[in-house]
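Exam revision sheet. Question 4 asks you to relate a sequence to its structure. Input first:
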Amino acid sequence: MEKYGSGIRRIVEAFRNSGLPAPRFREMGEGFMVTVFHGAPQKTPQEPRGKGVVGGLVGGLAESQKKIYEAMRSNPSVSKTELAKLLGISATAIDKNISVLKRKSLIRRVGPDTGGHWEVL
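Answer key, structure tokens:
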């Protein structure tokens, strides 16, 4: 049981290092369910930021919007509370920035607030 948490962390890091969306883990009774999102590897860590298609899409955004977009790319199940802590801004500011990203058709919410995930378009 001691390695339970560190194994999950290593799996998430391996996905992120490969440029793939992080899997989502959900506790279920005495175990857990893992959801792996399919897709081709995205921008590799060696590529310079701001280049390519993704860089072009987020180029005209405010810095906080870029950070939210990147956080959602690496962890589609990230919550608004986690985003607020990560960026050091209020939940209201997160909501406003998410509205901009939705309006620009860069993200959309799939499923409910609890248990759903962000789809980065």
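Marking note for examiners. Residues 43-56 have pLDDT under 50 and may be disordered.
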